[in-house]
């Protein structure tokens, strides 16, 4: 039976590779099957800063811009849960967003958190694609949140369920208004902390929580006053706290993400530590530009280095 299962898995993997035209993504290999890109939410309170509205980094499949390189290839159906999840992770790493979504949609009524949080992620990634219209985007955002919520209800010990619940809850704020968005930020932090507690080696959760802290640490005084009108004790943080999470993410997985290097440089700049800011901004500038976001990070790093 073990030999048969191994052979079946090999056949399915080969068919998948043919279906998606080979293994996609970064030239850095398959060690990391995602990218994170910052999505800055324009300030509804008059500032161009993302901090107040908690513009959390947006996670999406690696190289999602090329998600339609093959639009018509049959999905290979798995024999069991393990096979389905393996295929789902392969499609995610290959940036085959639509096919991944269609594969996992067959399990939308599942009681298994492993299916549900992946479906939440796929729904969210689909909402982010360039040609997704506004109405469809909103539908997918709330659909993703519902899947993440159900995943958490099924297994509150699953770190990924907590992480994607936090991320998807943040997304819904775009359609809920400022008051709801600020209120959600407390919940978002709680679930990110729980995700890290359950899996301290997940660099992504550490980075996002660092960004959460940075966003509120750089909040201008006038936005703090507006927030205090809505909530007597609005979310607060410090650059020191943000730095702690960015450094932990780097320790867990060195050079895993160009944006983490950039945020380290920006945090040290905010803390007036020019020497360390130069160090990390230089690393961000020299990071191999595999994606559009890497190129944007490079550009910002160069601009900040020129300021220093």
TrEMBL record:
Keywords: Cytoplasm, Cytoskeleton, Repeat, TPR repeat. GO terms for cellular component: mitochondrion; mitotic spindle pole; spindle microtubule. Its main location: cytoplasm. GO terms for molecular function: microtubule binding. The keyword Lipid biosynthesis does not apply. Pfam families: RMD1-3 (PF21033). It is found in: Cytoplasm, Cytoskeleton. Interacts with microtubules. Belongs to the RMDN family. This is Regulator of microtubule dynamics protein 1. It comes from Fundulus heteroclitus.
């Amino acid at each position: 039976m073990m030999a048969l299962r191994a052979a079946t898995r090999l056949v399915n993997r080969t068919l998948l590779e043919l279906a998606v035209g080979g293994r996609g993504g970064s030239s850095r290999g398959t060690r990391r099957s995602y990218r994170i890109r910052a999505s800055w939410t324009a300030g509804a309170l008059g500032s161009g800063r993302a901090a107040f509205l908690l513009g959390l980094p947006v996670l999406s499949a690696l190289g999602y811009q090329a998600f339609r390189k093959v639009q018509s290839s049959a999905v290979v159906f798995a024999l069991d849960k393990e096979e389905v999840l393996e295929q789902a992770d392969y499609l995610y790493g290959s940036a085959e967003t639509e096919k991944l979504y269609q594969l996992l949609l067959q399990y939308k009524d599942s009681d298994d958190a492993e299916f549900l949080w992946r479906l939440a992620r796929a729904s969210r990634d689909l909402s982010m694609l360039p040609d997704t219209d506004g109405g469809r985007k909103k539908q997918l955002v709330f659909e993703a949140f519902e899947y993440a919520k159900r995943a958490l209800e099924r297994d509150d010990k699953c770190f990924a369920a907590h992480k994607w619940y936090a991320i998807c809850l943040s997304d819904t704020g775009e359609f809920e208004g400022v008051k709801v968005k600020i209120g959600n930020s407390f919940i978002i932090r709680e679930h990110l902390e729980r995700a890290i507690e359950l899996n301290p080696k997940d660099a992504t959760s550490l980075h996002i929580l660092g960004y959460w802290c940075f966003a509120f640490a750089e909040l201008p005084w006038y936005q703090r006053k507006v927030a205090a009108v809505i909530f007597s004790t609005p979310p607060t943080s410090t650059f020191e706290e943000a730095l702690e999470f960015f450094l932990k993410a780097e320790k867990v997985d060195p050079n895993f993400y160009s944006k983490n290097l950039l945020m380290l440089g920006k945090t040290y700049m905010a803390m007036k530590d020019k020497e360390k800011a130069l160090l990390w901004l230089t690393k961000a500038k020299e990071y191999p530009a595999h994606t559009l976001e890497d190129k944007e990070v490079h550009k910002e790093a160069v601009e900040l280095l020129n300021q220093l």
